[in-house]
Amino acid sequence: KAGVTQTPRYLIKTRGQQVTLSCSPISGHRSVSWYQQTPGQGLQFLFEYFSETQRNKGNFPGRFSGRQFSNSRSEMNVSTLELGDSALYLCASSTGGLPSYNEQFFGPGTRLTVL
Amino acid sequence: AQSVAQPEDQVNVAEGNPLTVKCTYSVSGNPYLFWYVQYPNRGLQFLLKYITGDNLVKGSYGFEAEFNKSQTSFHLKKPSALVSDSALYFCAVSSIYNQGGKLIFGQGTELSVKP
Question: How much of chain B is in helix, strand and coil states, percent to nearest 5?
Fold first, then answer.
C-alpha cells in the first residue's frame, strides 16, 4: 500500500498571504488528522476529519481551516499568514474507528516558511 | 486535561547497551498510549501501542514498552541499542473520551547512540 502523501513538501510564503496544503491518506483510511510541529511548541493537534466531517479540533485560531473530500483526501488552509505559522505540518491517516486507539500513519510533512 | 511528559530532552547511550526513554501521562479514563519515532526531515513512524491487556508491549525494530498504571508511565525500552536508533522519540496519549484522531504528544526525547 502506498503511504500518506503530502504536497507540496516545501513552501515559502510572505506574511499576509494564504496557503493550502494537501494530504492523500492511505487507501481505505477514512480519518485524516493534521498536526503542527515547531521547535518551541512541539507537536500540536490542529483538527481531524472523518467521512468529510470535522470530528475534533485543537486550539488554533480560525485562520486555520480544513476540509475533506469524498475520496478522503484532505486539505488545510491557513489564511493571513504570520511569521509564527512557520512549521512542519504533518498529516496522519487512520481507519478512524472509535474509540480512537488505532495507530495513525504520518506523511513526510510540508515545511512552511513564512517570511 | 490530557497531557504527556517526557522528562529527558536527550538520552545518550553506547551501542550495545540497553536504552530507556521515559514517558508519563495524565488522562481521564483508560489511556491509549503510543510511541512514535521521527528521523530527520521525515514524518513520524509508529513503533508500538498499549490499549489493554499485557503491560509489556512489543513493537517494531526490537523496541518494547512497559505500561505502569500506578505510576502512570509508559517507558520505551530496547535491550541493545544500535547507532541507527538515533532519532527523536515521541510518546502520545489518547483516550475513549476523544472524539477521534486527537493524539496528545510529549515534547520528544532525542536519542543519541554512539559507537
Answer: 5, 50, 45
The answer to whether the CB atoms of A101 and B32 lie below 8 A apart is yes
- For B31, the grid coordinates are 489511556
Contact A96 B101 (CB under 8 A): yes
Q: Do A73 and A25 contact (CB within 8 A), yes or no? A: yes
Distance CA A77, CA B115 (A): 44
Q: Is A60 near chain B, with CB under 8 Å?
A: no
Residue of A nearest to B47 (CA): A103
- pLDDT by residue (tens digit) across B16-36? 999 999 999 998 888 899 999
Closest CA to A6 of A24, A18, A19: A24
Cβ atoms of A106 and A90 within 8 Å: the answer is yes
A106/B93 Cα distance (integer angstroms)? 16
Query: For residue range A33-56, what is the model confidence (pLDDT) as tens digits?
Result: 999 999 989 999 999 999 999 988
Using DSSP's 3-state secondary structure scheme, residue A30 falls into: coil
